[in-house]
Specification:
Elements lengths: L1 H11 L7 E5 L2 E6 L5 E6 L3 E6 L4 E6 L4 H12 L3 E4 L3
Parallel strand pairs: 5-6
Antiparallel strand pairs: 1-2, 2-3, 3-4, 4-5
Length: 88
């Protein structure tokens, strides 16, 4: 999904604050982080994942509607990543 690739590009941009809310197409993205190398992301208040930029670990917190597409978009940016699916 193109909008997920756009979201991941924003999340991985150096200038991007990891504590903010933004829209990608019709989707509301909320980012929360207490550290510069970790972010927790909620999509439309229904899907949640986190990404550790240091260990390249992507974790599905709840919901999995978009998780395969999110995983693929992070793989395009970082190559090999570790995936943890806590929603099962």
């Amino acid at each position: 999904m193109k909008w997920i690739e756009m979201m991941v590009k924003k999340l991985t941009a150096r200038y991007m604050s990891l504590n903010r809310q933004f829209k990608v197409q019709r989707h509301t993205i909320v980012c929360q982080s207490g550290m510069e190398d970790y972010v927790s992301v909620t999509i439309d208040c229904t899907e949640s994942f986190s990404f550790d930029f240091w260990t390249k670990e992507l974790t599905c917190e709840y919901g999995n509607r978009y998780f395969d597409d999110v995983s693929e978009a992070f793989r395009k940016v970082y190559g090999n990543i570790i995936i943890i699916n806590n929603s099962k």
